[in-house]
Each structure stands twice: as C-alpha cells, then as structure tokens.
Amino acid sequence: MSRQTRRPHALVVAYNFPPHAAIGTMRTLRVVRRLAEENWDVTVVTSDPGTYRAGTPVDDRLMARVPEGVRIVRARVVRGFDALKQSVKAVRPGGGDRAAQSSSAAGARPAAARGVVQRSIDFVDAALAIPDHESGWLVPAVAQGWAAVRANRPDVLYSSAPPWTGQLVARALVSLIGCPWVADFRDPWARAPWREDRRPFAVRAAGVLERSVVEGAQQVIFVAKGNHADFVRHYGASVAARFRVVPNGCDPEEFDQLKRPPLDPDAPFVLLHAGSLYAGRTPQPLLNALAVAIRAGIIDPRRFRLRLLGTTALSDLSAVSRDLGIEEIVEFIPRVARDESLRAMMSASALLLLQPGHTISVPGKVYEYLASGRPILAIAEEGEIADLVRVSGMGVSVTPSDETAIVAALQQIMRMAVGGVPMPRRELFDGRLGAAHIVDVVSSVARGETVPLVGGHKLAMQTTPVEKQGL
After folding, report:
1. Is residue 179 part of a domain?
2. Can you give the residue range of the structural domain that contains 385?
3. What is the pLDDT of residues 317-348, one digit of tens each?
4. How confident is the model over 119-139, as pLDDT tens digits?
5. DSSP label of 379
6. Are residues 213 and 303 in the same domain?
7. 411 within a domain of the structure (yes/no)
8. How far apart (Å, rounded) are the C-alpha atoms in residues 406 and 284?
9. b/e per residue, 162-186, with b = 16+ CB within 10 A?
10. Is residue 109 included in any domain, yes or no?
11. Distance CA 364, CA 434 (A)
C-alpha cells in the first residue's frame, strides 16, 4: 500500500495510560480515542503495570475504553536503586537499629557513618530522579518503542507528561524516527513552584531538558494559560509561536451514567475534597477558618463534615485538626476506585478545590467538579481557576490568605447547596472538545501544514445555565 493511501500512523508516548488510573491518564486516553475515531493507526508506548510505583492507582476497567486496534507497547521501569534505599532506611537513626543510637562514642560512630551513607544515598537518588522518579523507564521505553515502529514509521509523535521522562522518551524516538512531534505539557516542569526543594543541579538539569523538548517539538501544548504565559516569558516570542493552549476537561459520559442523589436534610453538610493532597495543596487555611467559624457559632460541628478523600503527602493533618479543636469534623478517607470517587463527588453537599500559592496550573479535578453538578468552594489565588469557578456560576473562590473571606465563603456555599446551582454549559468541562483540538494540531503537524490557532475553550469563559440541579 502506498504512503498516499495508507492510514496515517500516530505514535503516542505517555507513562500514564490504562490501567494507570491517575487523572493524567484521562487526557491521553481521550486523544487516543479521538485519533481512532478519525481513522488513525495508533501505537502507544506506555509503562508496564508490573513496575508501577507502590500506591499507584490502578483500574483495569479503563482498558475497556481503549479502542480496538490500538497497539499498546509496554516497557518496564528499572528500579534497582529503590531496594538499596529501603535497606539504608531500615538501619538509619530512628529505624529499628536502636543499639546504634546509643549516646556513647561507640554508638555515635555507626550513627554518624549511617548519616554519611544516607546523605550519599539522597544525593544519588536526586541525580537518578532527573527528570523524575520514572527515569528508569527511559531506556526500556526508547528501545521497545523503536523496535515497535521501525518497520511502520509513524507520521507524527504525540507525547503527554508528566512524568517528564515521557518527554525524553519522545525526544529520543523522534531523533531515531525523524518524524514531527507534538509535546503536551499538563503541568509546569523546570519552574514548577512546588518543586523548590530540588537540589540546584536538579533544577539546572530540568531547565536544560525542558529546553531540549521545547526546541525539538514542532508544537507545544499547555493545559493552563498561566503555564503558557510562563513559557512565553522564558523562551521568547519566536519560540512561543509554536505554543498552543488546549484546556483540560473530563469525560461527561462518566457522570451521565451516575445518579445524582438528593441531599438528606437530616444529614450533616459534607464538604468533600477528592484527590491527593501534595505539592503545597494544603487545607490549612480552611482548617483555620473552620475553627474560627465553629468558635463563633457560625458552623455547628454536629452538622458539618470536612471529608478528605485520597492520599496525602503533607504533614500530619489529623494532628493539626486536633490542635485546632476540630478533629470531630475532619474525616480522612483512603483512596478509592475511580467510579467510587465520582459517586462521592455527586453525593457530597459541596466540593473543595485547593490551589494555593500559584496560578500556573489548573488541576483536571476542577472539570470533574463542574460535571458533578455540586457547588464548589475554591481556595485559590486569583487567576484561571478562580475565574473558571466564578464564570461557571457553580461556586465561590477566595484567596487562602483571607481567613474572613473563607468563613464567609463557607456560609455562602452552604446556602448554595440548599438552593441548588445551575449546571454550566457542557462545553465548559467536556474534555472531548480538547481532544479534538489536539488531534487537529497533530494532523496539521503530520501533514506539514500551518497549525490553526486553537481556541481551546473559547466558550470556557461563557456559561449559560441550562437546568437547575436539585441538591
């Protein structure tokens, strides 16, 4: 079959892909589904579930959403260094080797030696975590990706990250294959404000690697205007001509299949945060405001629950709650399967969105919140998230530094839950529109055509209430 008549072939590189169930998986899955709908041959290079990191969310049911005919190439991650780290942790001070923690000189020497070993391990760990902790996927993914497509070379490569190792896999494969490349940045990388704990050499390395991706790709896509603006400032107007913003979204059909239950007037008000707490995404300002509201008699602790659903990498929030005297209203729920999480959103009285400290990213969770039909309390800096929540008509956004405003917002969101909120236009949160825009970019790049300006959600700043949800 000649090249003119064969179906176009897209190579997709993304560490997160079913059955990996992190929210970053969903954008790539939507793009793959759209490519298949438009009659593309699709090969996906992704990770092997056998080497996922501990605690990775997995949902085998997501595999049913991968179109038939999509070829999936799975590469394992080399994690040999992890075993060494665990061995060192087992004997470090504070671990099980109590004898070595003696205050005697004889006991201090082993402890000091272990301290040197631990610092060395930490240094090597930081080096091996360039660009991230999935760096052991780089060589296997490049090798297996190249073997999979060398006989049927793709017309274009699309990559989605984080993890950023995926962009380096894509960079290497593009060098081998010689095809054009579209790189999708779902988060900030080198200048991520929540990664200020990185060692200086790791920051410099991130900058060099990020630049190699930006300069190597024919098109670079961002999910957030703030991140796009940061890249424009950093790389300048000439490079920025290849940048596009395509906002994230969710899959509305997931919510269409679920029933939105009415609120029980006799049950406590439930403010739910669904998802992991990490990267400075802290509920501390809300906890402080809740303590103030309870002391002032604004909130009855018998009628209010803050439910934190998912994992947390933050300090001990239960201790913080106890110190504030509000431990009776704060509930910690372990991570659950995706469908259970969606049901929890639709069953909550209202939903909590936390994005303090920066404005350069928009979490995919906000679109799921919009699709749920429940009121949203956003504690976020002024910017894209705050605008989105307000324009939707579904919630309130306040800054984390304004405790008085947070207390007032709590009262407002509780009133909204009783009265019901208008559903925004579906286009505001429908991720299939974004996938269609990305595939338009991918198709233009594959054909060597001028890439049309992508409006993303031009209608994202418009919302027309079409129905009132009974809450």
Report:
1. yes
2. 252-426
3. 899 999 999 999 999 999 898 889 999 999 99
4. 776 777 777 789 999 999 999
5. E
6. no
7. yes
8. 12
9. bbbbbbbbbbbbbeebebbbbbbbb
10. no
11. 12
